[in-house]
Amino acid sequence: MSLRQMEYFLTVVEEESFTRAAELLHVTQPALSHQIKALEKSVGGALLERMPRGVRLTVMGRAFLPHAELSVRSAVQARRAARAAAGAEGGELHIATVHSVAVGILPDVFARWRREHPGVALVLHEYATTEALEEQLERGVADLAVGPAPPRSWQGPVVPVGQEEIVLVVAFDDPLAGRTSVRLSELADRTWVRCAMEAVIDGQQFLDWACAKEGFVPRTAVRTEHTSTAVRMAAAGVGVATAPSHVVRGALGEDCVVLPVDPSWRRVLTVFSRVELTGAAAAFAGVLCDAWPYGKPSDPPVRAYEDCTATR
Description:
Blueprint: H1 3-15, H2 18-25, H3 29-43, E1 48-50, E2 55-57, H4 59-84, E3 92-98, H5 99-104, H6 106-116, E4 121-127, H7 130-138, E5 144-148, E6 158-170, E7 191-195, E8 200-201, E9 204-205, H8 206-213, E10 219-224, H9 227-235, E11 240-244, H10 245-251, E12 257-259, E13 265-272, H11 279-291
Helix pairs in contact: 1-2, 1-3, 1-4, 6-11
Protein backbone atom coordinates (compact mmCIF):
# COMPACT_ATOMS: atom_id res chain seq x y z
CA MET A 1 0.00 0.00 0.00
CA SER A 2 1.44 3.37 -1.02
CA LEU A 3 0.57 6.99 -0.39
CA ARG A 4 0.07 7.47 -4.13
CA GLN A 5 -2.48 4.64 -4.23
CA MET A 6 -4.44 6.29 -1.42
CA GLU A 7 -4.32 9.63 -3.25
CA TYR A 8 -5.69 7.90 -6.35
CA PHE A 9 -8.42 6.22 -4.30
CA LEU A 10 -9.51 9.53 -2.73
CA THR A 11 -9.65 11.24 -6.11
CA VAL A 12 -11.86 8.49 -7.56
CA VAL A 13 -14.16 8.75 -4.53
CA GLU A 14 -14.37 12.54 -4.81
CA GLU A 15 -15.02 12.52 -8.56
CA GLU A 16 -17.22 9.38 -8.47
CA SER A 17 -15.61 8.44 -11.76
CA PHE A 18 -12.43 6.71 -12.92
CA THR A 19 -12.47 8.77 -16.10
CA ARG A 20 -12.61 12.17 -14.40
CA ALA A 21 -10.14 11.07 -11.72
CA ALA A 22 -7.64 9.93 -14.37
CA GLU A 23 -7.93 13.31 -16.10
CA LEU A 24 -7.29 15.19 -12.85
CA LEU A 25 -4.37 12.95 -11.93
CA HIS A 26 -2.87 13.11 -15.44
CA VAL A 27 -2.65 9.33 -15.74
CA THR A 28 -4.31 6.88 -18.09
CA GLN A 29 -7.47 5.17 -16.95
CA PRO A 30 -5.91 1.66 -17.19
CA ALA A 31 -2.99 2.84 -15.02
CA LEU A 32 -5.40 4.29 -12.45
CA SER A 33 -7.46 1.08 -12.40
CA HIS A 34 -4.30 -0.97 -11.93
CA GLN A 35 -3.26 1.12 -8.88
CA ILE A 36 -6.73 0.85 -7.32
CA LYS A 37 -6.75 -2.93 -7.82
CA ALA A 38 -3.31 -3.17 -6.25
CA LEU A 39 -4.57 -1.15 -3.26
CA GLU A 40 -7.62 -3.40 -2.92
CA LYS A 41 -5.40 -6.47 -3.04
CA SER A 42 -3.23 -5.08 -0.24
CA VAL A 43 -6.22 -4.42 2.05
CA GLY A 44 -7.88 -7.74 1.23
CA GLY A 45 -11.08 -6.76 -0.53
CA ALA A 46 -12.95 -4.39 -2.83
CA LEU A 47 -13.04 -0.73 -1.78
CA LEU A 48 -15.07 0.52 -4.73
CA GLU A 49 -18.08 -0.89 -6.50
CA ARG A 50 -17.95 -0.24 -10.25
CA MET A 51 -21.36 0.89 -11.43
CA PRO A 52 -22.64 1.43 -15.02
CA ARG A 53 -22.44 5.15 -14.29
CA GLY A 54 -19.72 5.96 -11.78
CA VAL A 55 -18.54 4.22 -8.64
CA ARG A 56 -19.55 3.98 -4.99
CA LEU A 57 -17.85 2.89 -1.80
CA THR A 58 -18.22 -0.65 -0.50
CA VAL A 59 -18.51 -1.36 3.23
CA MET A 60 -14.73 -1.84 3.31
CA GLY A 61 -14.29 1.36 1.34
CA ARG A 62 -16.32 3.38 3.83
CA ALA A 63 -14.21 2.03 6.68
CA PHE A 64 -10.98 2.70 4.79
CA LEU A 65 -11.87 6.24 3.63
CA PRO A 66 -11.25 8.33 6.82
CA HIS A 67 -7.90 6.63 7.44
CA ALA A 68 -6.79 7.25 3.86
CA GLU A 69 -7.81 10.90 4.18
CA LEU A 70 -5.81 11.25 7.41
CA SER A 71 -2.75 9.56 5.89
CA VAL A 72 -2.72 11.77 2.79
CA ARG A 73 -3.36 14.96 4.76
CA SER A 74 -0.71 14.02 7.32
CA ALA A 75 1.82 13.56 4.54
CA VAL A 76 0.97 16.98 3.12
CA GLN A 77 1.21 18.50 6.59
CA ALA A 78 4.56 16.79 7.16
CA ARG A 79 5.95 18.32 3.98
CA ARG A 80 4.68 21.77 4.97
CA ALA A 81 6.09 21.43 8.48
CA ALA A 82 9.49 20.34 7.22
CA ARG A 83 9.73 23.31 4.85
CA ALA A 84 8.41 25.75 7.45
CA ALA A 85 10.89 24.55 10.08
CA ALA A 86 13.70 26.00 7.99
CA GLY A 87 13.25 29.57 9.18
CA ALA A 88 9.49 29.98 8.67
CA GLU A 89 9.96 30.99 5.06
CA GLY A 90 8.54 29.37 1.95
CA GLY A 91 5.46 27.23 1.47
CA GLU A 92 2.18 27.87 3.22
CA LEU A 93 0.60 27.59 6.65
CA HIS A 94 -2.92 26.19 7.06
CA ILE A 95 -4.92 27.64 9.96
CA ALA A 96 -8.30 26.38 11.20
CA THR A 97 -10.64 28.46 13.33
CA VAL A 98 -14.26 29.20 14.19
CA HIS A 99 -16.16 31.85 12.24
CA SER A 100 -16.25 34.44 15.03
CA VAL A 101 -12.45 34.42 15.43
CA ALA A 102 -11.99 34.48 11.66
CA VAL A 103 -13.97 37.70 11.24
CA GLY A 104 -13.23 39.37 14.58
CA ILE A 105 -9.55 38.71 15.27
CA LEU A 106 -7.60 37.21 12.39
CA PRO A 107 -7.79 39.94 9.70
CA ASP A 108 -5.42 42.24 11.64
CA VAL A 109 -3.23 39.28 12.65
CA PHE A 110 -2.99 38.08 9.05
CA ALA A 111 -2.06 41.59 7.90
CA ARG A 112 0.75 41.72 10.46
CA TRP A 113 1.91 38.25 9.41
CA ARG A 114 2.10 39.32 5.76
CA ARG A 115 4.30 42.27 6.75
CA GLU A 116 6.62 40.18 8.91
CA HIS A 117 6.62 36.86 6.97
CA PRO A 118 5.82 37.64 3.33
CA GLY A 119 7.34 34.35 2.17
CA VAL A 120 4.73 32.16 3.89
CA ALA A 121 1.22 32.09 2.44
CA LEU A 122 -1.72 31.57 4.80
CA VAL A 123 -4.70 29.31 4.09
CA LEU A 124 -7.75 29.75 6.36
CA HIS A 125 -10.27 26.99 7.15
CA GLU A 126 -13.43 28.21 8.94
CA TYR A 127 -15.89 26.09 10.96
CA ALA A 128 -19.17 26.81 12.70
CA THR A 129 -18.35 24.91 15.91
CA THR A 130 -15.23 23.95 17.80
CA GLU A 131 -16.35 20.34 17.62
CA ALA A 132 -15.97 20.51 13.83
CA LEU A 133 -12.76 22.50 14.25
CA GLU A 134 -11.16 19.85 16.46
CA GLU A 135 -12.36 17.00 14.25
CA GLN A 136 -10.88 18.54 11.11
CA LEU A 137 -7.59 19.35 12.83
CA GLU A 138 -7.37 15.73 13.96
CA ARG A 139 -7.85 14.71 10.33
CA GLY A 140 -4.89 16.85 9.28
CA VAL A 141 -6.75 19.60 7.41
CA ALA A 142 -4.67 22.35 9.03
CA ASP A 143 -1.33 22.86 10.76
CA LEU A 144 -2.86 24.56 13.81
CA ALA A 145 -6.18 25.79 15.17
CA VAL A 146 -7.24 29.02 16.87
CA GLY A 147 -10.22 28.76 19.19
CA PRO A 148 -11.47 27.83 22.66
CA ALA A 149 -9.28 25.31 24.44
CA PRO A 150 -9.86 21.73 23.25
CA PRO A 151 -10.88 19.04 25.77
CA ARG A 152 -8.33 17.95 28.36
CA SER A 153 -7.90 14.68 26.43
CA TRP A 154 -6.31 16.57 23.52
CA GLN A 155 -2.91 15.00 22.84
CA GLY A 156 -1.09 17.90 21.18
CA PRO A 157 0.21 21.27 22.44
CA VAL A 158 -2.26 23.93 23.63
CA VAL A 159 -1.02 27.53 23.97
CA PRO A 160 -3.31 30.16 25.66
CA VAL A 161 -3.20 33.42 23.69
CA GLY A 162 -5.93 35.68 25.08
CA GLN A 163 -9.40 36.06 26.51
CA GLU A 164 -12.72 36.30 24.69
CA GLU A 165 -15.53 38.25 26.31
CA ILE A 166 -19.14 37.49 25.43
CA VAL A 167 -21.32 40.60 25.50
CA LEU A 168 -24.95 41.53 24.91
CA VAL A 169 -25.95 43.43 21.77
CA VAL A 170 -29.00 45.73 21.57
CA ALA A 171 -30.27 48.49 19.29
CA PHE A 172 -29.49 52.17 19.86
CA ASP A 173 -33.06 52.89 20.96
CA ASP A 174 -33.25 49.97 23.40
CA PRO A 175 -34.12 50.93 27.02
CA LEU A 176 -30.80 49.42 28.09
CA ALA A 177 -28.74 51.43 25.61
CA GLY A 178 -27.53 53.96 28.19
CA ARG A 179 -26.28 51.35 30.65
CA THR A 180 -22.63 50.43 31.18
CA SER A 181 -23.51 46.82 32.09
CA VAL A 182 -26.53 44.65 32.81
CA ARG A 183 -27.30 41.66 35.00
CA LEU A 184 -28.75 38.68 33.18
CA SER A 185 -31.62 38.44 35.67
CA GLU A 186 -32.90 41.81 34.38
CA LEU A 187 -33.59 40.27 30.97
CA ALA A 188 -36.08 37.59 32.00
CA ASP A 189 -38.91 39.25 30.06
CA ARG A 190 -36.89 40.08 26.91
CA THR A 191 -36.79 38.23 23.60
CA TRP A 192 -33.55 36.96 22.12
CA VAL A 193 -31.85 36.47 18.77
CA ARG A 194 -30.20 33.05 19.01
CA CYS A 195 -27.27 31.75 16.97
CA ALA A 196 -26.48 28.16 15.97
CA MET A 197 -22.81 28.87 16.80
CA GLU A 198 -23.64 29.44 20.47
CA ALA A 199 -21.47 27.46 22.87
CA VAL A 200 -22.87 24.39 24.63
CA ILE A 201 -22.43 23.54 28.34
CA ASP A 202 -23.66 20.30 29.89
CA GLY A 203 -25.71 19.54 26.79
CA GLN A 204 -27.41 22.96 26.73
CA GLN A 205 -26.76 26.01 24.59
CA PHE A 206 -24.88 28.57 26.67
CA LEU A 207 -27.72 31.09 26.95
CA ASP A 208 -30.19 28.41 28.08
CA TRP A 209 -27.66 27.24 30.65
CA ALA A 210 -26.90 30.75 31.93
CA CYS A 211 -30.56 31.81 32.11
CA ALA A 212 -31.52 28.61 33.91
CA LYS A 213 -29.03 29.52 36.64
CA GLU A 214 -30.93 32.84 36.99
CA GLY A 215 -34.30 31.07 37.17
CA PHE A 216 -35.82 31.74 33.74
CA VAL A 217 -36.01 30.38 30.18
CA PRO A 218 -35.01 32.80 27.38
CA ARG A 219 -37.76 33.58 24.86
CA THR A 220 -36.42 33.21 21.31
CA ALA A 221 -37.54 35.68 18.63
CA VAL A 222 -35.24 34.52 15.79
CA ARG A 223 -32.70 31.75 15.25
CA THR A 224 -29.79 32.39 12.88
CA GLU A 225 -26.85 30.41 11.54
CA HIS A 226 -24.08 33.00 11.98
CA THR A 227 -22.99 35.30 14.79
CA SER A 228 -22.69 38.28 12.43
CA THR A 229 -26.34 37.83 11.37
CA ALA A 230 -27.49 37.67 15.00
CA VAL A 231 -25.68 40.94 15.73
CA ARG A 232 -27.31 42.65 12.75
CA MET A 233 -30.72 41.43 13.89
CA ALA A 234 -30.13 42.77 17.40
CA ALA A 235 -28.96 46.11 16.00
CA ALA A 236 -32.24 46.36 14.11
CA GLY A 237 -34.21 45.84 17.31
CA VAL A 238 -35.37 42.24 16.78
CA GLY A 239 -34.13 41.16 20.20
CA VAL A 240 -31.10 40.87 22.45
CA ALA A 241 -28.15 38.87 21.08
CA THR A 242 -24.97 37.48 22.57
CA ALA A 243 -21.68 37.68 20.69
CA PRO A 244 -17.93 37.83 21.27
CA SER A 245 -16.96 41.47 21.76
CA HIS A 246 -14.29 41.24 19.08
CA VAL A 247 -16.89 40.28 16.45
CA VAL A 248 -19.02 43.36 17.20
CA ARG A 249 -16.22 45.89 17.52
CA GLY A 250 -13.66 44.42 15.14
CA ALA A 251 -15.76 43.10 12.27
CA LEU A 252 -19.20 44.72 12.28
CA GLY A 253 -18.54 48.25 13.46
CA GLU A 254 -20.30 50.27 16.15
CA ASP A 255 -23.80 50.41 14.65
CA CYS A 256 -25.28 48.86 17.80
CA VAL A 257 -24.89 49.05 21.58
CA VAL A 258 -22.55 46.61 23.32
CA LEU A 259 -23.37 45.79 26.95
CA PRO A 260 -21.06 43.77 29.20
CA VAL A 261 -22.79 41.29 31.49
CA ASP A 262 -22.28 41.79 35.25
CA PRO A 263 -20.44 39.66 36.23
CA SER A 264 -18.80 39.32 32.84
CA TRP A 265 -18.60 36.21 30.65
CA ARG A 266 -15.09 35.32 29.50
CA ARG A 267 -13.14 32.32 28.27
CA VAL A 268 -9.54 31.74 27.22
CA LEU A 269 -8.80 31.26 23.52
CA THR A 270 -5.85 29.15 22.43
CA VAL A 271 -3.65 27.94 19.62
CA PHE A 272 -3.56 24.15 19.50
CA SER A 273 -2.10 21.55 17.18
CA ARG A 274 -1.59 17.81 16.71
CA VAL A 275 2.19 18.15 16.83
CA GLU A 276 4.79 20.46 18.35
CA LEU A 277 4.59 24.03 17.06
CA THR A 278 7.78 24.72 15.10
CA GLY A 279 8.88 27.01 12.32
CA ALA A 280 6.03 28.96 10.73
CA ALA A 281 3.45 27.50 13.12
CA ALA A 282 5.40 28.67 16.18
CA ALA A 283 6.01 32.06 14.57
CA PHE A 284 2.29 32.49 13.87
CA ALA A 285 1.41 31.63 17.46
CA GLY A 286 3.86 34.31 18.59
CA VAL A 287 2.36 36.93 16.29
CA LEU A 288 -1.14 36.05 17.50
CA CYS A 289 -0.15 36.32 21.18
CA ASP A 290 1.50 39.70 20.61
CA ALA A 291 -1.41 41.08 18.60
CA TRP A 292 -4.31 39.84 20.77
CA PRO A 293 -6.13 43.03 21.85
CA TYR A 294 -8.84 41.79 24.22
CA GLY A 295 -7.08 40.63 27.37
CA LYS A 296 -4.31 38.17 28.12
CA PRO A 297 -4.93 34.62 29.37
CA SER A 298 -3.30 35.54 32.69
CA ASP A 299 -5.98 38.16 33.45
CA PRO A 300 -8.21 37.24 36.42
CA PRO A 301 -10.94 34.80 35.35
CA VAL A 302 -14.51 36.07 35.61
CA ARG A 303 -17.72 34.01 35.85
CA ALA A 304 -18.33 30.46 34.74
CA TYR A 305 -18.45 31.12 30.98
CA GLU A 306 -14.76 30.35 30.89
CA ASP A 307 -15.67 26.82 32.03
CA CYS A 308 -17.11 26.37 28.58
CA THR A 309 -13.96 25.44 26.69
CA ALA A 310 -15.60 24.33 23.45
CA THR A 311 -18.77 24.58 21.40
CA ARG A 312 -20.27 21.09 21.60
